Amino acid sequence: LTAGFLVELLAAIPSVVYGFWGIIFLVPLLQSAYAAVGLQATGGRGLLTAGLVLALMVVPYITAVTLDALRAVPVTQRMGAYALGATRWQTIWSVVLPNARSGIIGGGFLALGRALGETMAVAMVIGNSAKVPLSVAEPGYSIPAVIANEMPGAADDRHRSVLVALGLVLFVVSVAINLLARWLLKRTALPSQPASEPPSSGNDVPAVKLALAQASIPLPPVSPWPARFNFLMTFVLMLCVVILMVPLFHIFWQVTSAGAGQLSADFFLHAANTQVNGESRPGLGHAIIGTMMLVGWATVIAAPMGVLAAVYCVEYRKTKLAKAARFCAEILTGVPSVLVGLVAHAMLIQLLGRWLAPHPTGWAGVFALSIMMMPIVLRTAEEALLTVPDTLRRASYALGATPAQPILRVILPAATTAIVTGVFLGMARIAGETAPLLFTAGNSNYWQPGLEDGIHPLFVVSDMSERMPFLTYYIYNYAMSDKLEEQHLAWCGAFVLLTFVLAVNIAMRVVAGRGGVAASRSG
């Protein structure tokens, strides 16, 4: 349980924090390794660095999907293997893994789709070189990194068209991989058997031994090697878990030690270009408030729509519209976030810019974040609503309730805890996003447009119809800066962002563990 919780924390770390950690730790480490083996100096950035960061980022997805696939293996098959005298590892290797093979492969493909769409962490460590690399140690480029780096400054229509075409290629590949992964996962979605079901008496090893003993037939000698190999593999599995936890704790330690110690009042009260009595006193308070506004408005828009869509998918689950909505939500959760930002930019800024603002705005960023959050809320709310016992709905109808009354007075209240947990999960996800906001929200270094000096109250922020500052933008830019002051701000921003995201995830786990779904207490 502890290992599973820590792996979930790995998935909760924002990608920009992974990229920052890669710059500070992996890049110098690999640069020293390259120099030791005589490779040409590349600064440490390259395909191998990006691959290591991506590998660490997708491990939680592989682990979660593999765990579900292993749980789907019928318990009777495990018990039958134990009854035949198999060790735990023999049961895992010969029974559990073959039955869960499709799900494990599907989890790998699902993680591959996530890795293909990762933007900011890759852009920070891959080197962003528009040349064909001849080795994994050389810098390279990726489609999401190209879009994120060049789209905000693309002024030529042909340039933007090329970037949109790259986005289309990435979209097609991502959707194809996600469809293949989900098809493989459905092949292993078998209901598991109750753990208390006894094995077949025909495979009962104690009974066979008793019969042999009564017949005075000597039993063959028991080899010690299966037990020793089982112990060895148990140690190997535990070692893999420990190795996986090392980067997690290293990221926490690095961000906390470098960020927490440098927090000050200026960080929360000043903007990036604040001047006080002719002295530069920068901070990221305006970016924190901007992030809160973007996430808050996106939640106000996405949460009700996602919950209502989930109610429709549950109450009218057999209709074609409900099936289509569920399918679109599953696909949308696997679409790279940079493509969501690209679509929002094309719709609100390029297409409707002549009637609306022809530049990035806070509302455009809210639109992109809402699209990302809606399928998360829909899926979690749908799962919560499905756990409500059907007897509650039938009892409401027996008392003469209309079709809408059980939903409003019974179903939704019973699933409130899980729905709220899903909403906070979506908030934690979008709070760490960077790529879709680069060319939708833009950025601003001030509390208000035109106000450059002085300390401003926390409620004084940019208008939503103007460019909106957000915290991950400064972490991304300042992490690659040569100025020590900006690096300190990046560390502080990473610490604040990581603390918020982890606090939300821990709170969700505590609430889910204490209350669960209220419907489970009503059944």
What features would you describe in this structure?
This protein is mostly helical and 523 residues long. The chain is built from 23 helices and two strands. It has helices at 2-12, 15-37, 47-71, 75-83, 88-99, 101-117, 120-125, 143-150, 157-187, 205-214, 225-259, 265-269, 285-315, 320-333, 337-351, 362-386, 390-398, 404-414, 416-431, 435-438, 471-479, 484-514, 519-522; strands spanning 275-276, 279-280. Strand 1 and strand 2 (279-280) form a beta hairpin.
Summary, kept brief:
The protein contains 23 helices and two strands.
> Measured on Cα atoms, how large is the radius of gyration?
27 Å
- Tell me, briefly, the overall form: globular
- Helices and strands, in order, run as HHHHHHHHHHHHEEHHHHHHHHHHH
Count, helices = 23
* Biggest sheet statistics: 2 strands, antiparallel
Separation of the first and last Cα atoms: 27 Å
Helix content: 55-70%
Low confidence ranges: 190-204, 210-217, 449-461, 515-523
Task: Tell me the β content.
Answer: under 5%
Q: Report the mean per-residue pLDDT as an integer.
A: 80
Task: Give the strand tally.
Answer: 2
Strand order of the largest sheet: 1-2
Structural class call reads mainly alpha
Question: Helices, strands, pairings?
Answer:
Blueprint: H1 2-12, H2 15-37, H3 47-71, H4 75-83, H5 88-99, H6 101-117, H7 120-125, H8 143-150, H9 157-187, H10 205-214, H11 225-259, H12 265-269, E1 275-276, E2 279-280, H13 285-315, H14 320-333, H15 337-351, H16 362-386, H17 390-398, H18 404-414, H19 416-431, H20 435-438, H21 471-479, H22 484-514, H23 519-522
Antiparallel strand pairs: 1-2
Helix pairs in contact: 1-3, 1-11, 2-3, 2-21, 3-6, 4-5, 6-9, 8-9, 11-22, 13-14, 13-16, 13-19, 13-21, 14-16, 15-16, 16-19, 17-18, 19-22, 21-22
